Records
---
Amino acid sequence: MKLLEYKAQELFDLYNIPTNKGIVVDKLDDLKTTGKEFSFPVVVKAQVLVGGRGKAGGIKFAENKEELENIVSQMLGSTLKGLPVKKVLVTRKITAEKEWYLSITLDRKIKAPLLMFSSQGGMDIEEVAKETPEKIVRVPVEPLEGIRDHMAWYILDKTGIDSSFLTPLFKLSENLYRFFREYDCLLAEINPLMVTADGQLLAVDAKVDIDDSSLFRHPDMVKFRDELTEDPLVIEARKYNFLYIPIDTEGRVGVISNGSGMLMSTIDLFSQKGVKAACALDLGGGATYDRIAKAIEIVFSNPQVEAVLINIFGGITRCDEVARGVELARREATLDKFLVVRMEGTNREIGVEIVRNITPPVPLAESVQEGVEIVSEWLKERNR
Amino acid sequence: MSILVDENTRLLVQGITGREGTFHTQQMLEYGTNIVAGVTPGKGGGEVEGVPVFNTVRQAVEERGANATVIFVPPRLNVSAVYEAMYAGIPLIITIAEGVPVHDMLGAYHLSQKKKCRIIGPNSFGVISPGKSKAGFMSHKIFSPGKVGILSRSATNCYETVFLMTREGIGQSTVVGVGGDMIPGSTFVDLLPLFQEDPETEAIVLIGEIGGNDEEIAAKYIKNNITKPVVAFIAGKNAPREKSMGHAGAIVSAGGEGSAQNKEEVLQEAGAYIAESTAHIVEIVKTILQ
């Protein structure tokens, strides 16, 4: 789960990571009611989870009250790279001496946290990595040990930064690591990390990604999650413990399966036929017929979806439940959407019998390949 | 022969009194697995399906000589159970829960390296050596004894492959679910040497997917150390970037790290056969074994 900047800032505050505090505004009136006198110039930052926010027009500067109101009213309700801007953050504009980069990621290659620093802050780190990889210092962190001061020394030595920054950089890294651990982060990134004229370090932007599996430990974050997810079908699916994944805005097929791996391989088979998937839904294990009907309903309610393939390899998921779910969904759903079922495994024979008796008929595929074939052919026919 | 589990495995079931634990204990016993003990703290002294239940793993090891454990404990408490097994000196720890916090697993992984024990999972269906023993929740009817060793990050893609193999009369030596999480206890490279050494295994199937670089590391190892034929399949070629595809570990970064294309390239370069689908895996294996 990724956090919006302002939320990440709030958490940084708890860990003594200095941020450029501001106010969060979700309607123009908020500017007046805060009673706060802004000291201009200020920065207005769209609170949207997109990369390259500045370039896309999501960061603007205002010299006075009028400009500020103009920018805020324009930004709120607009979209940035397709995502609606519901909130903006207004902060004072800082003049930086330098812009650095500091982050901790959970690195899968080394199976450990990785502390990363660059004196080339303020730009996309993947770009820095591509163009000037020597400007990035990487320090693996022993999970059972944590951050030590020699790591800060190493960074200063590598970058030639003045040794007066040793303690500030060490303290900041230590605090960021403590946050990273306690909030189960996959990523905690400060970019840019500004060095002000008086030598203070300031986290001017914050990117945080929290491990979804740890959310039971962070109930304060859970309520915040739905606010972030823009697709209402994702939220609807989550209520039933399904994972709904929007795939391609040009796709016309929905795929439902009882496991992540098979979901991916089914989408791949469609691609081999030149058919794009609009969305996918993972049922997880052991879904009952009413939940399966609900899953079909959710995928059908994506207006892009014209046809759905249900591909089940039943272990804990029983084919008879799947069949009953299909029967129920078919009865209630609009008939202009096409539905094909492929199922294998537990109670297959009972399931097949049920599916054969559904009216209007639901094609039953003998294999995944055949299911993909039937759906692809149907789409071709329809477009003829 | 086979790897990890066989008729000499003395299996412990942690979380044996839970709904899943009890159900799968009965299933594993039915398959012929030698389950010597169960553990649920506070339920010691009882029995499940005739298996004695202890309060602690240490007791189960001392009194019943358990040498492997399968953990049916929910994600929140899962890693505590893994730690208990490690401290009791169990060399093989199979843990199946999906949704274990990755930071929990991080600590457990590093301790397992120090203690020289092998963790399989989490988010895994377990391990099965068909006809001998199973430690996990896989539906065993589709498996059959034979010469193909399988390592898979996905349960469903693995079942599909095994189902098709068995239908074609191709059996399996051992099938291991390495699991779909970001930090698995064991990855392909940790298990490949076992299949290389196992005289019963004649071909190795590797079912990978997008995310991480375990396939890349495996490719390097295959190139230099594996003489048996390897068939690899990578799921998720058409998954959008920066979106987890269900498995916590199945995610391609914004910069394209962890893509299926790269994995296929390096595996092919290492001499592995690349399969386009689960059905294609079976076709290739069939040709190899002929």
---
Amino acid sequence: MNINMTIIGQLIAFIIFVMICMKYIWPVLIETLTERQQKIAEGLEASDLAKRDLEKAQQTANETIKSSKLQAADIIDQANKRANQIIDEAKVNAQTEGDRIKVMAQAEIEQETNRAKEALRGQVATLAVAGAEKILGASIDMAHHQKIVDKLATEL
Amino acid sequence: MASETMTSSEYISHHLTNLTYGNHPELGWKIAETAKEISDMGFMAINVDSMLWSLILGSLFLWLFSRVARKATAGIPGGLQNFIEMVIEFIDDNVKSVFAHKNNLIAPLALTIFVWVFLMNTMDLIPVDWIPYLSSLLGVHYMKVVPTTDLNITLALALGVFALILFYSIKQKGITGFLAELSLQPLGKWALPFNLFLELVGLLAKPISLALRLFGNMYAGEMIFILIALMPFWSQWLLSVPWALFHILIIFLQAFIFMVLTVVYLAMAYDHH
């Protein structure tokens, strides 16, 4: 086992290798690792953020659904109320219309009756006079007996 | 065994001899053929095999990591990038837990040490005869494939770290602050020589313990593999498999310890105490 110039050769090689490693290898690889670390940290942060956003969105969605349900119930309620109201109104309208029609019909009937009565009354007078003429066999002075005939007619 | 004509001790020493190219005092620049020639060469020699495998494995590390770094994406990583990132994060966590200051060098330094030492240790798991046998076919007589079983390699790494310890100590505390730290504690200024001795021993123990711990562990592990390889071929698996499994732990642990202690020493260099 001799100490010889190998020691110098190895020392020179050692210095050169360390310098190359220091200049071209270590910084590059460490930078890569740091970069990846940063990337991962950013990724985790982003996923955190996304999770929070999702939670928020879910909350808003839930709230919206709740309020929509309330609104829907409200609308249905109102609609029912309105429907009842419309039915009621329709009923009332129908009633009044029916009443009006009935009244009108009655009035018409009355009118017709009266007209018939009037017509009958005129004819009755004529018939009575004709009858009486036939009975008496003589013409009756119309002017003379007009009063009696009219009286008769009104009594009918 | 590599060859039937070798004795056990020849086999062992063959496996523990580096392929050395150096300046022999009598024969000039040449590849050493015996251990005697290697020791004659002294300092003016280079262990070609250790150097070669160390450079190959270091380049493999740089190639693999720079390939991933070039194509790295902050999106979903592929299989290889995933694995590399796991290593990077492992190192980064360890460095951050020990070293509190801002420094662009420490983490890449720790990464380089950890992966490089780990790869060099891993060569120990390749069966001890494969690569030496292949290289002997190519006419290369010695081939020691685990660079961390060469004290030169581990000591070079430790000295690099030691230089950084001195550099950061002086940079953070100033030359006077550093000297004061070495001489004025633990016993105050009246025991200055004693303090200085104690602290210097402590300071020098850092690189030496770093180098010797790694070297010793890997050398011993390699030695055991070589001893197991001396057994009859049909019974080797009985020992080599459990030892290899256990050694997986050791190669990782030694790389990890070297890396962590480096960071700890540098953190101590930064801190005032």
---
Amino acid sequence: MTLKKTLLASVIGAAMTTAVLPSVASAETSLRMAYDADPVSLDIHEQLSGGIIQLSHMTFDPLVRWNKDLSFEPRLATGWEQVDDTTMRMTLRDDVEFHSGNTFSAEDVVWTIERLKRSPDFKAIFEPIESVTAIDDTTVEITTTKPYPLLLNLATYVFPMDSAFYSGTDADGDPKDEIVKNGNSFASTHVSGTGPYVVTERQQGVRITFDRFDDYWDEESPGNVDEIVMTPISENATRVAALLSGDVDFIAPVPPNDLDRVREDEDVQLVTMSGTRIILFHMNQERVEAFQDPKVRQAFAYAINQEGIADRLMKGFATPAAQFSPEGYAGHVESLEPRYDLEKAKQLMVDAGYEDGFEITMMAPNNRYVNDAKIAQAVAAMLARINVTVDLKTLPKAQYWGEFDERVADMMMIGWHADTEDSANFHEYLTACPDADTGAGQYNASNYCNPELDKLVAEANLEIDLEKRAEMLQQVEQTLYDDAAFVPLHWQDLAWASASNVNIEPVLNVMNFPYLGDLVITDE
Amino acid sequence: MIAFLIKRLYHALLVMFVISIIAFAIQDNLGDPIQQMVGQSVPESEREALREELGLNDPFLVQYLRFAGNAVQFDFGYSYTFNQPTTEVIMRHLPATLELVAASTFLIIALSVPIGVYSAIRPRAWLSRFFMGVSIVGISIPVFLTAIVLIQIFAIGVSVAPFPADTGWGAWLNEALSTDGGMPAYGRGDPVNVFGTWDSNFASLEGLTYLVLPAVSLASIMLPLFIRLIRAEMLEVLQSEYVKFARAKGISLRRIYFIHALKNTMLPVITVGGVQIGTLVAYTILTETVFQWPGMGLMFLNAIQRSDVPLIVTYLMIVGLIFVITNTLVDLIYGLVNPTVKLTGKPA
Amino acid sequence: MALLDVTNLDVRFALRRGDVQALRDVCFSLERGERLGIVGESGAGKSVAAFSLLNLIAKPGYIAGGSIHFDGQELTAMSDRGLRHVRGHRMSMIFQDPMMTLNPVLTIGEQMVECLKAHRRISTKEARAISLRKLEQVQIPSPSARLDQYPHELSGGMRQRVIIAIALLLDPDIIIADEPTTALDVTIQAEIMALLLELCEKHNVGLILITHDLGVVSQVTQRMLVMYAGRVIEQGPTREIINDPQHPYTQGLINALPQMATPGARLNQIPGSMPSLDNLPSGCAFHPRCGFVARADGSTRHACTDEVPDFVTSGNCRVACHMVAEMLDRERIPAEEIR
């Protein structure tokens, strides 16, 4: 079933050619897949986005990776030990090779982390790491500036790169390891990792072809896919049509409108999971005086029916939320449920002295989140019942974020996914007191400021004891709930679909990082 | 002739210049490219640094002059998404669109001429009425819908059962009306490389199967127009004196229809239709989106979504150029076909 | 037996509100080499009569009855295919406006060669040679250059010469000319008419000349017929009709000629206008405009309003008029059926 490929196949020429390698005998198991977009670059440090991380899992391996239940699975790192508050020691595998043939060692981990700290997109989340040293070939020691409880979370982003391959200068005389955001670089077109797949052909925006890496270290992986052809299909209907017609075997995402259609088709299977992206509304306290009154904010919380939205608007394709952290996260509080009570909402408005209501402006994107514009309309309609008149404007995402940064409307929608898969991330960006110098509260369009809370989050970030830490983060969620400072709506569900004999369910997770190296395709 | 062409070249440059100014002026409304380029957690300081590096903070005039200065040296900037010169990106996507338009044009001409002529010769025949009816429907249905329906019918397959399935004849009719699909649902497949730089779908049978559905969808926009145009023109021409005279000479009907009438019919069709076909090159956006056809239209749509301003500006200018070229070609062809027109100063 | 014999020709137009009769009981004949003029106002049916000979009337017109006998063949019974052999070959036509008659996108040569090739099996080279000869016959300057020119490159007069040449290409027996000079300059008109006359005489080709110009008719034709509201109302030798018109309408036409008016005085118009075909008066169609419905003694001739007049013979002419019939009755000159 496996065919030997020469190593030359893993090096991509700078000019994108359309030369297609001769198609091999049908004994090879091949997966044709379609996402809504292809990765913008082969350099996995160039951008911090879902697409790049998905690519990383195909061509590289992380030190550790998430299991379905959000525990950690050792990959290139076999063990870890917290030596002291600010030092962790990790043991690495000794039998791993890169696509280029070089051997993997601790040096590569050091090199990779240092490069991550230089990457404009990753440097912020790797800021807690002070230094990393290779003790020996299979041991690496990481020190943090302060006690940092999320080191393992961070380790899921460390996909060791072939330092030897990326060293030196390329044909243009530029360093091979440079990270270039708006130009061509060696790393954006050349790949050498430890991952299960080797990139053999790439036409940006059209197709990427991967071949199974013959010397892949994980021999226990059940995966039997020899070749993957990934094409981006941006149009939802076309992507689904491609699956239903048998032109592709695996697609993601599946648009909510087509869920039933995919479910009904016998040759195709649908997999859905609750996601970790929270959709919420900010209430700008600086713009609207009424929002400074907790009673008004609570009235809003009671007036908005998250379950109704999830049920009828999203057709069940969302999990209603009353907090930021989804299930599985440290800060998630089971008891915090959506609290829809229209009578209570009206009463609170009367108590606050706003029986006649008031007018506000609202803004939301219309092509970024699932049903974003419709959700905004539904919320506006719900607020009308407590005499709040909403002037709603929706914009395409390209224009919306500029307006968001300027805090142009009284209520603004935003969706957020924590890069670290950890609750603190929500608060650092969405609820912390806005501070232009430190960058805190960068997306806090409510201008909500609770210094006590920020302090608690900061302490939690230094708390190594994970149980204690979870308690602190849960307290933060409770406070925010009581304060009703924001209006969380729901977590967007995720949906994938594949041909019936492509067993995607075992390799999928709530972060939407499919582990395609372990994918099994059974015979039809 | 040379003077004519030079004048047209001047037009082209003027058009491109005006478009570039307009496109540049609205670039603030096209969205923030930085937003598309960096992840959500990247701090403002990093974004500012990137903005500065790309020169996006400079005043409009400075940015435009920089652009214009480069443009006259044929450097139209780098695409933010592809990290390549915009001209290269566009040239890479151009063959796909040109082939799609060529295939559609072929379909349009091959179908509209016989149908239009037949409808003019036999206006009351049921087939003519059928074509006229269908063409009204065709004009009304948006190409998007046509494309999706075609994909459903020919790529996925549709099974209908309006007749009782337990009877022999019912089952047979159901079978006949259902389709199995099987056509490719998206993309160009594997076009064959010809002449070194051009990947063609015309070079292989498989390539042609990928071309069929998109070409039919695109043709459906223009086909009704052409059919009705040819029919109307032909009806008028058939009333003319010279057709009566040709009949009085005893010329065969076939020759009258296809030599006397058709050539005169095609004159206004060339003018109107030629320009319409030219606009097809720009309006492949919807068709390419539905079929994920990697041509200029899809490229442009993605560029807009990602606020890839250099690519947008260059694309708009190139489209302006294409329009001028198309108009010029149409004028030239018309001048060649119509002997009464003195196009270029040659004594008639 | 005359070369062409038209008997009781009936042509109708099938309109939505019912059939309208365009020609009623039209009879005339033509000997070989004879020249006949058909005269009348616009709408009288002259062109319809001409077109119906080759069954070229535009729909919704159709031949409803009568016979067209040509050289032993009944044309009304022929299929379109059969008629095509006659058209352009045995009988050819010349239309009114030479600019509209020639196809602007084909060269003169192409339009001449195709006519030859439609009726004979000859090569293009031979066809061009014949075409060249015909062009010379119609006295066109530099004929060989003309073959490759387009109609818009020629003047009006030259175009009409070309059309005459086309009409003569296959040595027809009859040429039907529908107002051949109306659209031309006055100075050219005489030239073209003279040319046509010369060629017809020279090659013994019959001519049916349709025109409203009495002057041309008197110069060119040997016999003529006058049409009114779809009927022939007077026919006979041209000289006799011009000098001594019998029918009041014909008299009115002659009187209306500018030559007949006294200088400085008003022209003599026939009062009223010709009725439309779907709204014909009862009896004689001319009676509303006729000054002779009332007799000299004041009584009304009721036949004019009640009956359609039959032909009566007066000298060499046949006239369809009740007054003339009455006069002839009184004189009791025996009628002779002379055409």
